[in-house]
Design goal:
- By secondary structure, the protein is an alpha+beta fold.
- The strands form 2 sheets. It has a 4-stranded mixed sheet with strand order 4-1-8-6, with no helix packed on it. It has a 4-stranded antiparallel sheet with strand order 3-2-5-7, with no helix packed on it.
- β2 and β3 form a beta hairpin.
- It is elongated.
- The protein starts with a helix and ends with a strand.
């Protein structure tokens, strides 16, 4: 009985020390982070030839990428074909494609804006496709 009482008191002291060691200014910051609402955007890459005609059929590109210009974070596509990005935080992005052996796409920098969202919920970014 005595050991149980001592163990209980020590456990209670341990728990109170953990909460006492947490600075008070960190708690509101965590709450603010949780309440921070950011707009997420869906982006679809469209490839066109240098004359403006859409690219159809099989191509040798190895997928696309998106780099946030403020943070430098590189995002990979979320779809199987490699041309759609879902849930990108708002900001300015450079979109590009991983080149193939004899082909590639010209990167494009775009600032994501709610006015660019189409009826299907995606922002369409057009990259110029080239072949040597």
């Amino acid at each position: 009985m005595r050991k149980t009482l001592i163990f209980s008191v020590l456990s209670l002291l341990f728990v109170t020390q953990i909460y006492a060691a947490t600075p008070a200014n960190e708690i509101p910051a965590k709450v603010a982070e949780q309440n921070n609402v950011t707009t997420a955007y869906n982006v679809r890459i469209k490839l066109v030839r240098t004359d403006g005609s859409p690219v159809t059929g099989s191509i040798g590109l190895r997928g696309c990428w998106a780099r946030n210009e403020q943070s430098g974070v590189v995002y990979e596509p979320t779809d199987r074909e490699g041309y759609e990005f879902e849930g990108l935080p708002g900001g300015t992005y450079t979109f590009g494609a991983y080149p193939g052996n004899w082909e590639g796409a010209v990167p494009k920098t775009v600032t994501l804006d709610p006015s660019q969202v189409g009826a299907d919920g995606f922002i369409e970014v057009t990259l110029v496709y080239w072949v040597e």
